[in-house]
Design a protein that fits this description.
Helix content of chain A: 40-55%
Number of strands of chain B: 7
Number of helices of chain B: 7
Distance between the termini of chain A: 67 Å
Number of helices of chain A: 23
CATH class of the domain at 4-232 and 269-280 in chain A: Mainly Alpha
Strand order of the largest sheet of chain A: 5-11-6
Number of strands of chain A: 11
Oligomer: heterodimer
Largest sheet of chain A: 3 strands, antiparallel
Chain lengths: 484, 171
Amino acid sequence: MFGIETYLQILYKLHNFFSNLYSYHMPKTQRIRDPIHGLIVFEEGNDLDQLIWQLLNSDPFQRLRRVRQLGFSEFVYPGATHTRFAHSVGVFYNARKLLQIINKKVERFDKERAIVATCAALLHDLGHGPFSHTFEGVEKTRGKKKKHETWTAEIVEGDTEIQEILNKFDPTLAKKISALILAKEPTDIYAAIVSSQFDADRLDYLVRDRYMSGVEVGHFDMEWLLDCLEIDRVLVAQNPDQAIENQQFDYVDGFVINPKGFKAAEGYLEARFHLYSTVYLHKTTRGAEKLLASLLSTLSEALKTDGADKLNLPSRQSLVSYLTQEDPSLAQYLSLDDGSILSLLPFLQACPNARIAELATKLKRRHLYKCVDIGSRLRGDGSDEKVRFKRDLKEKVKELGMEFGYNILYDEPRLVGYDWYTWGEESTLKKVLVKGVEQNKNYDIGDRSEIIKALKKEDFYRIYVPDNEKRGVVEAIWTEIAKV
Amino acid sequence: MDGNSQGMKTELVASLIALSGGLIVGKTRLQKTVFLLEKFGLESGFHFEYHNYGPYSADLAEACEIATAEGVIKAETKPGFYQVPYTVYSAQLAAPAAVGNIASDRAKTLLAIMKGFTAVDLELAATMVFLEDEGVEASQVDAQVAVLKPLKAKRDNLDKAHALLGQLKAA
């Protein structure tokens, strides 16, 4: 009688109605134990704490319990099964700490902006899909341009429990939060809590991901670092991607570090470099992500051509239903989590589409493609060899009837030592600036630290193949390139 | 022309730089120039998505890398504000008959107009066009640009971006 979308919407409305009825909010002091930050208390008499507690208990936020923070990193570091929920609570805690610093340092503390920044920090990851960035990549191959920040803004402003809670607190709040989440340029010190070199997000994930993955690299002195944070007017180039004489400038309040924090800031940047290298960009993790992307893209195509019934897949299963829609609704997006993918794997293994069955089996059994690390072999700046290798590989793949995205996958992440936001997508507020003697005369840590200068960028270039035969094809191409 | 070969794409980038007086300063400017030319029939085959500085194409960035490696264009990196590197692209080619699907004379006119505006103006104009393509109503575009770019979206900057789009359409 109803289409799946109508069915989901009705279910969602009913759920909201009953949860509102059930969870009439009685202010009460609440506590969370966190492995990183210890005891996090939400005070009864504090309006903002009580608002945050209500948001934590909303349906869209509880969904984050079912989205792992590091996706497939668990394939390499079995302890890294922590969720976006735990991380988001940690980000809230850091935002609170950063606001205490701001409160001490500014002449006039803007309570309203502080509320917006705290909520934005807590809610910043709401829009992550299953397996986070992997799903975003799959959406891109399906021609869907919406990124997780846009989904987050829609969840905050759309017809959701989050928006209802925010509206009850202040009818203008949801719009202000989504604007702060979407903004690509920090405008004041409160925005720096959500996006800057020392934002609440980064200050949580670097510590949490290190702890949960169990790696011993990447430690830094967070307490000292925070104690050395100062606020200063920072000169910002509107478009750094130009010669200095052609720049347009603005002054914005930002975090800078006082000279006593120089070493702690070095440690912080070094920690980030090591974590990216050992955890986030680990070849096996990235290989698993590529395999999942391949599986989901293949599934999406097959659903388009054959439909769920022909593939023996349950059409009302959240992922199947989502991928079948040309323009999925917010409710459908919110029905997705890591479980949507993992619970579908046995169905996919039994699916009559051989390619889907094969990829699903590989993923479920962790029989991943093998990595041929071409990037580490490139000589000089590598660009010339890489271009030739890519060209030859493309020709060979065509000649042998192989297929990119199925039996040959590739990955090209960039690890940048300090200029994290690269190719000129850089802003002064993303730099670590150390407070100079005169006001507004700050210097870049990269100019004075030999350690930071030594953190070189690395362009990874990895090919993933399912078997030794295809590995041989890739190796033979490289052998020819290396001869020149 | 979505199926443009890599060779055609690198040639297109080189032609575009050549017709722009042999020089384009900055990756942002190059990206936004190509994006805006798409609206005037370039049909480059590059796929754009929203990035920090507005519409951005990873394919175009790759084509630039390939063109540089093959020596079709030059990409010189210089230290800018706070040592943030910026890139100067140059190409010396005999004037091509066309760039993509745009005749060379018309492309030259459009490129000359864009040269008269700053990279920030181009970024704002490209963002406006991108948002309209995404279904944002024309009356809401400026407000949405202000959400994404609160620093740059000052009235005079927005006016200049509109002026740029107006001049391009009139050309």
